[in-house]
Structure formats: structure tokens, C-alpha cells
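Q: C-alpha cells for this one, please.
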Amino acid sequence: MDNENNLIKARRQKAGILAESGVNLFSNTFTSPQPIKDILPRGETLAPESHEQDGGTYRVAGRIMSMRKFGKAAFFHIQDESGRIQIYARRDLLGDETFALFKKWDVGDIVGIEGKLFKTKTGELSIEAATLQMITKSLRPLPEKFHGLTDVETRYRQRYVDLVVNPEVRETFRKRVEIIRLIREFFTNRGFLEVETPMMQPVPGGATAKPFKTHHNALDMDLFLRIAPELYLKRLLVGGFERVFEINRNFRNEGLSTRHNPEFTMLEFYQAYATYHDLMDLTEELISWLAYEVTGSMEITYQEVAVDLSPPWQRYTMDEALVHVAGIDPEILKDEGRVKALAEDRGIVLQPGAGIGKAKTELFELEVEEKLINPTFITSYPTEVSPLARRNEDDPSVTDRFELFVTGREIANAFSELNDPVDQYERFARQIKDRGDDEEIHPELDHDYIRALEYGMPAAAGEGIGIDRLVMLLTDSPSIRDVILFPHLKPETGGGGKKKKKK
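A: Here is the predicted structure, written as C-alpha cells:
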């Protein structure tokens, strides 16, 4: 820390000298530079130690990433969003005064250069600087050249530095942008309408999670950051839109882990006159296509584990998965008492009133989930744990629902929608009754949503896909924090910030 403080002090001293010499440390006059990636191909045919004969003057800007200074010359690399190139600075070409000021520049400074293109004797394409301009003086040093920014928490906390020094991080977020663009293209091409629904809701719904709460002063009412957009998207089905999707931010006031962030991105889409079987087919098509577009193959590697995303994917009912993956005797699954006893024997604590459906779900999460490496659809979720899904017409104890698992993680959740307002009212009421003092479930019944259903919602199916987890899969990222630009972290206890004392 002392060494870092000394480096910062030295930089501030250099900045002072430059400012006293008339250098604008934060100028905004160097405009319209050329992207470095557009310049690099122009030097491919140049021979070592030769200049471009017919080329003009190139104008580039970027951050200094390395610097080698000699008595009368210097080589340094600058990096812009598109690439990196070497700059050659000579005292005899720039003049004594300019070159003397240039030698006060540091790695991390953002600068502008104009000059001719040439190749050094080692064959490296470079620009010979005719003019140099300081654009932004960096007052803090970048991480050490050979060690880089490797501390994980520092990388997340100082993402702006992480992006500068780690090109693979920049590539991950470029891929994230591309994945989202492709998702929009996929659904738009299939007749889906992209919509926006409220982020602040009077009644949080669409999932079982603890919401963030705020207060609107003008309306004098409490509002909740949405935990899911589901109930508003289904209101649009009532209104006559038959295919809708939203790429949205959701907020859940819960813990943090490698798979969970309080603020995360979801894709939700709904299709009238479709079933969850239709959405399984659509999901196979979407994700396998995304994998091919982003990685060039449907066979990928995630954390050194091979994953084959080529359709068709495995499909199990929950009971089948408990039998074939967890090895549970199918006769046990027919008896509520034996299922609960098995769950308790495996260390699962069931809440009072929990039924066989809850016990099976807990067993599935414990014994099956992490074993589902290649994409696998799990169907026939118990009605007890699926308050918004349509009951199966042949077996009302389960719903027409699926979840998709890849590499042991849930990627998608979907079902044929419940559109019976009486059944929906009863399930909401049961949820609230079962909640007791647990505020993580909806604090009140959404009467307006019931009213919407009473006007009539067409038979439909809907799905939510976690975009962050999908990006993790397609970029081989081990943590959700690796694919969120600014993940939530505990406050710094020193240096960059201090925890506030409670009054």
C-alpha cells in the first residue's frame, strides 16, 4: 500500500510539472481518431524497416499500456477499444521541448498521436509520431505489468481497471452484448413483440422471492422492485398481444453466490395457443443456435467439462429423474410417508404442512440437479411448488411445467399457463396462508391480476431464461460476477470506502 501511495504521489508531481508547463491534463480537443483495428491491415505488406510510401498521416488515440524510454527516443503501446499498436517517439522529430514533456508521461495516460505508418526492424507495425497530445493524465498506476489485476474481489470492485488490463474480460462482455442481440433477433423473427413492463410494482409477483421495498412520496404508497415481470406480461395476453417477450432486470433481496446476484437479467416470453412442449422445442432451437453463433459449435467446454448442446435434449419427468439419476426406488415415490421419511433421512428439513410434492422437489434439488451436465428438461413439477402453472389434465397433482438444467444449473423455467381465475385465486390464497410470517412470499394477493384473468386469458405457455447464467455457459465463466459488469459486493472496509456507523 505504501508503494502504491508513493507511485500516486510521484504521478501527481509529474502532473503538476506538466500543468505548470502549459499542458492541459484533461483536454477535449483531440477528436475523431481512427480505430486502431482499421489501421493494422494497412501495414501487412510493409517490409521491416520500411515506411508506408503512399499513406497519409494516421490519427489515433488510446491508453498507454507499456513504455520503453531511451535517451533520444521511446517506444510505447497504446490501446483503444478496437486494438493495440506501437508508437515510436523521436526527439529530433518532435523537438526538444515536446520530447522533454513527453518523458513525464506514464503508463495509463490517455493520449493522441498523429504520424506515419512503418515497421520496425523486428517487423512490428508502428506509428512514427509527428505530434503528441495529452488527453487525460492518469493519477493512479495500472496493476503491475507481469502480475496484472488478479485478485478476484478487486477485479469485480474495480471493473474499470479489469477491463483495461484483461482483454479476455472485455471479450466476455462483448459476447454478452452479442448474445442479447441474437436473442432479440431470434424472437423478433418469430413474430414476438418486445415490450417493457413496470420495474416498480404495487404487488410483487411472478416468483417466490423477497423483494426490495421503496416508497413513492407523491402517491404515498409502498412499491416493490420487481422480482419477475410475469404477471404483467400475461396481462398483455389478456389484452390481445399473442407473442411477447421482455429482456428485463429483476431484483431479489436474497443472498449472493457464484450463481446469484440481487440484480440480474432475465428473458421472459409468452406465446398464446402454445404448450410447454412447444416451448421445449423452441428453447432447444434458441440455445443450440446461440451456442453455434457465439462459439462456432454446439459442443462446448464449461470449466473443463464437455457439454453437447446439439438437439434433441434429454427429457425426464421429476419422478423419472429421481429414479434414473438419483437411483430412488420408484415404489417409494408412490407413498407420501416414505418420500418424506427418505427426505428427512437425507438431511432435508420439511416445513410443517409440506406435502409429497415439496419433499420430492427437495430430494430432486439435493440428489439430481448437479448431475445434469448435458441439457436436460425436467417436467411434471408438483402442483404444490408451482403456483402459476397449469395443472396436468391427466394428473392434477403435477403441472405442465419444465425446468432446463445444464452443467447442474437451472437455465430456464417454463409452463403452460394457469388461466382459470378461480384456481389462481385459491393458489394465491394458499400461498399467503402457508407464508405465515415469512415475507419472502407475496405480501398480499394481486386482485388486479385475478380481475384480468376474469376477462379471459387465452391458453398460453411462458418461459423465463436467466441470461446471466446463459452467458456464463457460453463464455466458460465460473461465477455470475464474471458476466455482470458491476456485481454487488460488500462495502469496502478501508481505502476506497468505509462502512457507515449506525446512529
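A few notes: The longest strand covers residues 58-69. The domain at 2-142 is CATH 2.40.50.140 (OB fold (Dihydrolipoamide Acetyltransferase, E2P)).
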